[in-house]
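Pipeline run #58 for the internal structure catalog. This entry was flagged by the ingest filter as a single-chain record with no existing model, so it goes straight to prediction. Upstream metadata was stripped on purpose; only the residue string is passed forward. Reviewer on rotation: M.T. Logging verbosity set to normal.
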Amino acid sequence: MSKTFQLKVNETYSFDITEAEINAFDSIKTEVNNQHILHNNTSFKAQIISQNFNKKTYTVQVNGNVYEVAIANELDMLINQLGLEVTSAKKENDMKAPMPGLIVSVDVVVGQEVAEGEGVLVLEAMKMENTLTAPKSGVIKSIAVSTGDKVEKNAVLIEME
């Protein structure tokens, strides 16, 4: 079975391509980061200008035109579909409940500076106490819960700035 990849070009165009389709390209490496590609009897000169291996993003120049390309494999697509993006916690300013439970303690106050990984509150779920930590360094903007509150999954607990 062939693997499938999803390509997003310039944050506008999105399409799927299989490993078999990639292998069908007639391509020759001409220099480091340069390729000469024949596709449907058309010649293309492609150069990778920059790349971010961790984010799977590339800046590619094809026949003089520059494109930003993001590549996702099947695992990346599944993670995204489930809403479990790895980098989302670093971008968000809201701390949300990872599961339903009872707030045992709130260990911060509005205006307090916290470091990434610092404990901010304790949530009891399934008879276990879970210390929730700050997803990033910042300042506590607001606290939406108090000790003794019952919360549902994804309820906003603390807002940071």
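catalog note: Helices lie at 19-24, 74-81, 88-91.
catalog note: The two ends are 46 Å apart (CA to CA).
status: ready for reviewer M.T.
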